[in-house]
Specification:
CATH architecture of the largest domain: 7 Propeller
Strand content: over 45%
Radius of gyration: 28 Å
Shape: globular
Helix content: under 10%
Number of strands: 31
CATH class of the largest domain: Mainly Beta
CATH superfamily of the largest domain: YVTN repeat-like/Quinoprotein amine dehydrogenase
Distance between the termini: 30 Å
């Protein structure tokens, strides 16, 4: 699976001031309005003479500036990581890393991306590569030890990096500046896969694919506080911006669990389409973006909806507007839209396929496509 990470760097222009100039004062060598010669009066046109309006000056078109957005793409099969320009999707560089890279995380310095080198089936990886975002050079590597299989990554606000080590059943805390391990916290759960953390950096939440739940970890004490069962194949995990909820995708149960971080109990379970694998909460906390291997969404009957689809890196999204009827038909842009094939079911499920290079595939497993509902 291709995993994408997007980071935005904002540049704010600085305002300049002149504290030494006092309003109303005249600097040496300057003239005041009283010193200026009186301008000659303009001629008044005779009555009946049409007044000519000067042609409007053309407004200069500003030169488009390149976007500072960058897209980090992990290439699992090619053992590399690529950077794309966020404005046009053009490749900036590709850097080789170790075998079987899986995840990427931009560090808090905004200049470095960490890549977990998971390894292959018979070759477990042990390293996390740190790559310079500007040059594409690997600046250092973090060694987690033999058979570690580093996977999930989470950058903390203080500069530290959390790494799940599936092969060691651990959450590893490292200092990327020195490439040194500062703590190893046992999860005692097989396939400790993904990780997220609270903004105050006191707690981490680690999913276990095999155990079907989340380990709640006290980062200060360096121990597991509790394990919460969420569902078979617990994989993706993210925390809301206010820290009140942790969302977990359970790919084997086809559900999404919402954990209350105060009570440490599952507050809600949401039925989902097949194989939900990732979840990300938007910065405003109003939406959860879920990735499915089947690339399916659920739409209320009789309601107008819009499905936004990205079919390839760098391409513009395609909007499919439709209304789902109780009979399972779609009105609006129907069935086949360009290269997109959408299909409706009576339970409100919408599936879409993409045909590219004469080879049809479902979801984004081979060609990186995702879909989500957006408001009108």
């Amino acid at each position: 699976m291709l995993y994408l990470v997007l980071t935005t760097l904002l540049a704010m222009p600085q305002a300049s001031g002149s504290p030494e100039v006092t309003s109303g004062a005249t600097a040496p060598g300057e003239t005041t309005a009283a010193d200026q010669p009186t301008p000659s009066p303009r001629a008044t046109p005779r009555p009946g003479t049409p007044t000519q309006t000067p042609p409007p000056r053309p407004t200069p078109t500003p030169n488009p500036k390149g976007s500072s957005d960058r897209l980090v793409v992990v290439n699992k099969s090619d053992n590399s990581v690529s950077i794309l320009d966020g404005s046009n999707g053009k490749l900036k560089w590709t850097a080789p890393v170790e075998k079987g890279p899986h995840e990427a995380e931009v560090l808090t310095d905004g200049r470095t991306v960490a890549v977990s080198d998971y390894g292959r089936a018979n070759e477990p990886g042990r390293l996390v590569s740190l790559v310079d975002l500007e040059t594409g050079k690997v600046v250092s590597r973090i060694d987690l030890g033999e058979g570690a299989r580093p996977h999930g990554l989470e950058a903390l606000r203080d500069g530290r990096l959390l790494i799940t080590a599936e092969g060691k059943k651990e959450l590893v805390v490292v200092d990327p500046r020195t490439a040194k391990i500062t703590a190893r916290i046992p999860t005692n759960r097989d396939v400790s896969h993904m990780v997220t953390a609270s903004r105050d950096m006191r707690r981490a939440y680690v999913t276990s694919l095999s155990a079907g739940g989340v380990s709640i970890i006290d980062l200060t004490a360096g121990k597991v506080l509790q394990f919460i069962e969420t569902g078979k194949g617990a994989e993706g995990v993210d925390i809301t911006p206010d820290g009140r909820e942790v969302w977990v995708t359970n790919r084997g149960a086809n559900t999404i669990s919402v954990i209350d971080t105060k009570t440490l109990k599952v507050a809600a379970t949401i039925k989902a389409a097949a194989f939900p694998i990732r979840v990300r909460l938007t910065p405003d906390g109003k939406r959860a973006v879920i990735e499915f291997v089947t690339a399916s969404v659920t739409v209320p009957h009789g309601e107008r909806a819009r499905l936004r689809m990205f079919t390839s890196l760098g391409s513009a999204p395609s909007n499919l507007d439709f209304v789902l009827t109780p009979q399972g038909t779609i009105s609006g842009k129907d069935v086949l839209v360009g290269t997109h094939s959408i299909r409706a079911y009576t339970d409100g499920l919408i599936e879409f396929n993409v045909n590219r290079d004469n080879a049809q595939t479902t979801g984004y497993a081979l060609i990186c496509i995702s879909g989500y509902l957006v408001d009108e």
